[in-house]
TrEMBL record:
Residues 756-1033 form the PI3K/PI4K catalytic domain. Residues 329-477 form the C2 PI3K-type domain. PANTHER family: PHOSPHATIDYLINOSITOL KINASE, PI-3 KINASE. It comes from Plakobranchus ocellatus. Belongs to the PI3/PI4-kinase family. GO terms for biological process: bleb assembly; cell migration; phosphatidylinositol 3-kinase/protein kinase B signal transduction; phosphatidylinositol-mediated signaling; regulation of chemotaxis. This is phosphatidylinositol 3-kinase. Residues 197-287 form the PI3K-RBD domain. The lineage of its organism: Eukaryota, Metazoa, Spiralia, Lophotrochozoa, Mollusca. Keywords: ATP-binding, Kinase, Nucleotide-binding, Transferase. Its EC number is 2.7.1.137. PROSITE patterns: C2_PI3K, PI3_4_KINASE_2, PI3_4_KINASE_3, PI3K_ABD, PI3K_RBD, PIK_HELICAL.
Amino acid sequence: MSYPSLSMMDGGPITLPSIKPTDNSETLEVDFLFPNGILVPLHVHYFSPLDQIKAVVWRKVENYPLTNALMPQKDYSFLFINKMGEKEEVLDESQNLEELQPFLPVFQFVRRKGDKVTKTLDKKINNLIGRGLHKQESFQAAEIHHFTKAMSDMCKQITTQRRTQTPLEKFMWRYPVRLRSSADIPDELKGKISDNPEGIAVDVAFTEMVYKIRVDPMDPPKKAVAAAVKARRRQTASAAPNDDPDLYILKVIGLEEYIYGDYPLIQFKYVYQSLVKSMAPQFLLVLRSTLPESTPAIPVRPQTIRSNQHEKLAQANAPNNTDIILWNIEMPYRIQIKRITKIQLVDGSRIKLYAGLYHGGEALCEEKETEELVVQDGACEVSIGITFGISVANLPHAARLCFALYTIGTNTKRKDLTSWVNIPVFDFKLRLQRGDRELPLWPQDLLQQPEEHCVPLGCVALNSMSLDATFLTINFPDVANLGSAYLVYPQYDKVLECASQSMEEDGMPGSPTMKVTKQQLDQLNQALFHSDQLFEQDKELIWLLRYEVRQTYPNCLAKVLQSVKWNSFRDVAKMTALLQIWAALPVDYALEILDHEYPDHNVRYFAVNCLDAELSDDDVCQYMLQLVQALKFETHLNSHLAKFLLRRALKNQHLGHKLFWLLRSESHNPAVTTQYSLILQCYLEHNPDHLEALSKQQEALKKLCAINLLIKESDIAKREEATQMMQQVLQQPSYKSCLSNLFSPLSPLYKLSTLKVKNCRFMKSKKRPLWLTWTNSDLAGPDVQIMYKNGDDLRQDMLTLQILQVMDDIWQAEGLDFRMNPYLCMATDLEQGMIEVVSPAETMADIQHWYKAWAFDKKALFEWLKYNHPNENSLDQAVEEFLLSCAGYCVATYVLGIGDRHNDNIMVKTSGQLFHIDFGHFLGNFKSKFHIKRERVPFVLTSHFIYVITKGNSKPSNSQRFQAMCEQAFLLLRRRFPLLMSLFMMMVSCGIPQLSGPKDAYYLHETLVPHLTEKEALAHFKAKYTEALRGSWKTSINFWVHMMAK
């Protein structure tokens, strides 16, 4: 290719030729020079953004020699000669050739600038989060840069504020208080604590002495400290130099938790839970001067972009004055299919491509399909124009274009999905996509067969991790022939202006002042509260009466959103304006509109604001599992939800711990690798104190994985030798150092001191999980036992245990403690994770073996409790523990449809507390054999359990009390149906096979029957209870079969 020369006329301007294509092809041949000396010519689309061009040319250079000398793609930026004859580095790769106006069609790849500190920090972060982000950056480098800049700016504000904090304020960030939402005391608990007028009993330890004091539950912690110091002075009969109460703080014995601040004692979760369990809270009196200091900070990443470059980048990201609002374009939306390559089918195979436009799971217009195509040499070269039944003007900003590739069998009626891909219609700057795109498709085996042809609920990330991916090349045409300008979605103020202009006249249908008839109100009530599915007439009525819903039923916002015509820009504008005056939603309903059905960013912004105002940090931690999953429903990286999670995590290290492991455990998933890794990177870059602690945990997990693999390779028949080998490895200096003095990945409340190697072993089950025992860093605290698993997917267990904890919180908020035991469980990587060991406890099967009885002897469990509680009062307490916990788990397992219940996954602690483990089947997915369901009762309530509940038939009235408790527990859960339903709906994208779509979550409708009145629902549950009681013999048979099979 020959290039024009740069010449100047004396006293005149520079004469610059244009490189814009002169024909109508909109393509141009551009040369790309690589650092290894390779020159790659490539025809590129004039309006394609540079990050897309970069991805294509990088794949092209892989066919050239010396590619092993290149660094990852993310380490290079574009350098070109601009119109002023100067070298310019491209900072915003979302720009195209038209916007850059290079003097020559030549680009050079140059190394991005950095320094030793930056590289060191990058290496630490990359080792910790275990990702190769450069593979993702090849597809969306510009958006990644935009996200990183926006998040970095927000995080810097927080970390700057932290530098000016006092030592106590920094301590509060590392050891935040765990608080209830209020200090109100439920009536049931008031009865317990009002028995003694002197207040509640508290045990406070100081050095080797324990002082028993009494304080008012509404007193702040400093009064408990003063009472403890006074008790110490009284017992020693002398004053000490450190007797000033202000010198001390309360620490929970056995936990890395401190009780401080001006909150009532009863508002602290630890204190409240202790009192509910009729236990005295136990504290250690600690000198404030001995509190742990922050670890030395790792140098923060230096600023690598000069200030004038920041200005250029800001200008590049700013809206272009020449851009056109797409509401002015009435022509139909269209695209061009250019080719399909790398098809993994034999020549002659017939395929068909489907395309659809969706908003969430709702089709904006009819799907389109190509004619049958024949594969030749693994490709189909085509030129097919697709015009959709929606105008450009009516495209909502969260619209996604969905493609699905099907094979056509010899019988033309059979079609099988082979691959799919989704892409946003608008880019991250809300500009209508334009130019050529090469889209790597996702294989079908990652999803179940969709109900429709397309997969609209799949991710919008591209499959950049598979070398065998099929590629679809499409063109987004310049529909309005705008040249350098873009079609853009209007700014927020323009949307509100449109809503104002489109408002119905006063008194007219749909206006705020319309007169609503009684018949319409009755129909509205039916649609909002008694219909599982909204039909078209329901949606029309709800939209017509949207102001009535706002005024009378504001919590039904989700139903209004389902009724919006998202393919009408005027209706979308009206909904956007309506959100401005909508009352803030309670948490139960705000979570609902963060699921996949509501992708509109104004709706999601509203939901996040509601959560931010309502949720304490403890609540955020409780719902973090769902909030992390909800990130998958975001159309673009830079979302309000991501900002919310990052901001909260940077202000509370316990939240940061939970956020880190939830993101880290799924970072292997290519659908979220980019998104999750970027959030992790941003958190760790601005939180160097936490980086070291998390790195220590990650290194410990690597060591445990190595030991687990070693055991799997050993001869299990020689179990004793394998155990000795395991213990010898654990005693090696490198392992011993790595596995000592670290926070538990399960919870930062537990600090693990040193391994008790002689107590460590592995289990007999197939995956050989490790049973590990650590001493507590708190010398007065109990040992910490954890099971490490490698080879099992723990996500379903995590979700079930989280829901059990939510249920327990619902009950405890009413002063009811059902002695639930939702033990800790955390996935840390693909099929790896940790589980808290609950002890001392035995399985029902082991208890029956202990009694030397088969599954039909109902006395076994009661006799075991009597053996462990020879004292009558102690036995009464154990029976009470069993009664309460059995009631809680009966209701919980029924509501969640937990299956595969047998005597090896139902356990009982020596205290009498019953609990369930291993939640491999839920939401009604019961095990079956020969097409016969094993579970033929709503929940497990065997004769063994009734015998204990009635204390060996000596207290028959306990049976009625037990049933009444079950009924009360059920009704309390039913009142929080919206919350429980939202938590499951937000998890449909997590990849759990038994929760692959909304249909699975609807199982809760069957158990909690929200469409019935409370009286009808109670009758429904009573019938289920009677069914479980009468069918207890079936469960006993199931127990017997399980014992025989062992």
